[in-house]
Amino acid sequence: MGSYLNPGSGLFEMALRSQIFVDKSGLIEKTNHCVRTLQRYMCVSRPRRFGKSMGVDMLAAYYDRSVNTKELFQSLKIKSTKDYEKHLNQYDVLKINMQEFLSATNDIEHMLKMLNEYLIFDLKEQYGQVRFRDEKNLVQVMKDVYSYTKHPFVILIDEWDCLFREYQQNQEAQKKYLDFLRFWLKDKEYVALAYMTGILPIKKYGSHSALNMFTEYSMTDPGNLAEYFGFTETEVQKLCEKYEMNFEEARAWYNGYHLISHEGGTRKVYSMYSPKSVVEAMQKRKFGTYWNQTETYEALKVYIQMNMDGLKDAIVQMLAGSNIRINTGTFSNDMTTFATKDDVLTLLVHLGYLTYDNEKETVEIPNREVSQEYVNAISTMDWTEVIRSVQTSRELLEALWQMDSEKVAKGIEQAHKEVSILTYNDENSLSCTINLAFYFAREYYTVIRELPGGKGFADICFIPRKIHMDKPAVVIELKWNKSAEGAIQQIKDKQYIEALKDYHGNLLLAGIDYDKKTKQHSCIIEKWNMS
């Protein structure tokens, strides 16, 4: 274990020298607003491989008073902000990765004792001239150093929540850890800024939190930090231009984390991308599943196969492209206390397997890469009917292209039987079945539900992405207990095709009806000339 006091700028310099570096120095402006104020406690949680450690390394390089990093930040966005020079290299920085200490022992008391001793050792070695009142008490040692230097501390804690992820059942250990952090940090004048980052928000006990002085920034409520939770759409567009990669494909693979922030009365919606995935795709010149290479679908499987009321139904609906309304308020911020399916789904938001809209209070699967993880997980579970629908969706799409309406109707029929878990009583549930039955369409298409066009909304539209323009666009209208002919006629009468007026390729119209009495699906497919 190295030195934790004033670690310098080495790791951030490596990031700057990397083939791909995206400037996220605007984060420093946000932390500067909190330094030496009552808002100086920040807990920023987001999924694995979303750039948390790089952010910590950048903050260390900026605040550390043992180095001069003015040149490093000269060409970055932070340079033009108001308090840039005021806080640059002005603080003693303590930077800790809690995983290091947790990995060194399997005993919480020993871990906290080690942490205490290592930090005290670093402080005494750096400030040997200080007269310490109690050399074994970390809080007292830091008070004495601050009294001597008049420079308060910026405390950066990475993987702050690793104990909750690895000691999932040990509530006594968790409590000791939180009590240690509270005693060390809360109401201490020597703290200029305490910035913690990890995957989980702060654990609560009942209605209280041991660390209630922290402002939380998370995947369910990113506050004013949303644009620092990953790569923004603009940043990914620039990378695609530089590496001559198709942006539309990048969006289909990695976009989908919709974060909403409110700052200064302005509402902003950010479409965030997983940094790890985008960087890998650009460097390898190939789109694929990169985010989860470090942890398999087994982690996801543990949660989605929990036998909770309506959980399987919710997962199947989201796999079909629907969103699900949830209540995130009962989540205990750990990985074991689940009172309802909503608690499981909230955890999946924090782990990056779902995205949360904090205005509509809904969750959905963010993109193709993450969707593939669900398919991988389900294929090793006993959800055979669901995985069969996904697997046969290739054949169903081929049948649609070949305008084999009988085969399409039979395929949807089969999907309906197999996914009988879905309550089948209206056009919405029919839509869910259709979307799951055509799961494979996402390989080629942007799939849009309720696309505005002409005098209403087309139920489902398949719009080919640029590199798949050889495939036909498809407008699908659904009917419940009416007729497939009526569905086709509605597409024409209500001019849904208007929504595709800028599209000049082949177009198919498909009308699908479900007869409640016969429990049969019928389908009609027509070619439409766009000229």
Largest sheet: 5 strands, parallel
Share in β-strands: 15-25%
Number of strands: 17
Write down the overall geometry.
elongated
Please tell me the overall pLDDT: 90
Tally of separate helices: 20
Gyration radius, to the nearest Å? 27 Å
Strand order of the largest sheet: 2-3-4-1-7
What gap, in angstroms, lies between the N and C termini? 69 Å
Classify the secondary structure makeup into a structural class. alpha/beta
Question: pLDDT under 50 segments (min length 5)?
Answer: none
Question: Roughly how much helix do the residues carry, as a percent range?
Answer: 25-40%
Question: Could you characterize what this model shows?
Answer:
Helices cover about 40% and strands about 20% of the residues. The protein is of the alpha/beta class and about 525 residues long. The strands form five sheets. A five-stranded parallel β-sheet has the order 2-3-4-1-7. Strands 13-14-15-16-17 form a five-stranded mixed β-sheet, with helices on both faces. Helix 20 links the parallel strand 15 and strand 16. Helix 17 (about 385-400) runs antiparallel to helix 18 (about 405-420) and helix 18 (about 405-420) packs across helix 19. It is elongated and about 90 Å long. The mean pLDDT is about 90.
Kindly summarize this structure in a few lines.
The chain has 531 residues and is an alpha/beta fold. It has 20 helices and 17 strands.
